[in-house]
């Protein structure tokens, strides 16, 4: 895990361009720092995400490709630059505000709000290291030929992820439902469970709609989806 250390401290200069301010987050594969672009006429604060070059299963390159593909779209951080610094690969991007989970004291910061007056009421989606492209044939998604492997956080992973199946858009929606339920109710039935098999059992138990009992009425049609 990447940490602030003697060789990587606040005040360090990255690529003769960015001054490191402080660490603002970390994940399973990376660490995120606030930095200042010292080559700008006016100080520009940015977010810099670092990942060890020697990581066995790197994800940052995938995230960089997604950010470049999303350039110009709203609700996604603006991509600035990529490169290497010491033993790490990095990407510099738009610095956003607190995550929704920070605002309600949760722990899954994949949704954040804007950092300016103009964007403070906008929600941004971040962290694309595990994203993949879906390929189409005449408008139909091509089913992968290989079995998938587990990716993501056990707490929010879909049942298909637990079963080692290849994931698709329906799995993204299932993970989103788990996050929304936790944001609204404050917890998930498996929120304090660490055993993956028990988490899977509880997800299957609540799959029939009981998970949404305390949710607003707008969620009732989700029970009817296949």
UniProtKB/TrEMBL annotation:
SUPFAM superfamilies: Protein kinase-like (PK-like). The keyword Nucleotide-binding applies. Residues 1-226 form the Protein kinase domain. PROSITE patterns: PROTEIN_KINASE_ATP, PROTEIN_KINASE_DOM. ATP binds at residue 49. The keyword ATP-binding applies. GO terms for molecular function: ATP binding; protein kinase activity. It comes from the Eukaryota. Keywords: ATP-binding, Kinase, Nucleotide-binding, Transferase. PANTHER family: CASEIN KINASE-RELATED. This is Putative Tau tubulin kinase 1.
């Amino acid at each position: 895990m990447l940490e602030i250390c003697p060789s990587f401290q606040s005040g360090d200069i990255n690529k003769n361009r960015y001054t490191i301010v402080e660490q603002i987050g970390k994940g399973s594969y990376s660490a995120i720092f606030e930095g200042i672009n010292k080559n700008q006429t006016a100080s520009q604060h940015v977010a810099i995400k670092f990942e060890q070059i020697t990581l066995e299963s790197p994800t940052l390159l995938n995230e960089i490709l997604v950010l470049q593909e999303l350039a110009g779209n709203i609700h996604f951080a603006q991509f600035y630059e990529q490169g290497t610094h010491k033993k790490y690969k990095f990407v510099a991007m738009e610095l956003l505000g607190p995550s929704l989970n920070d605002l309600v004291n949760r722990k899954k910061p994949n949704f954040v709000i804007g950092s300016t007056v103009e964007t403070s009421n906008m929600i941004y989606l971040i962290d694309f290291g595990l994203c993949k492209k879906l390929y189409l044939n005449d408008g139909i998604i091509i089913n992968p030929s290989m079995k998938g492997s587990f990716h993501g956080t056990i707490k929010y992973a879909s049942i298909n992820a637990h079963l080692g199946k290849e994931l698709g858009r329906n799995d993204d929606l299932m993970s989103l439902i788990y996050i929304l339920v936790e944001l609204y109710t404050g917890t998930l039935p498996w929120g304090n469970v660490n055993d993956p098999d028990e988490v899977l059992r509880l997800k299957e138990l609540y799959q029939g709609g009981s998970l949404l009992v305390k949710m607003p009425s707008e969620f009732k049609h989700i029970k009817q989806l296949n």
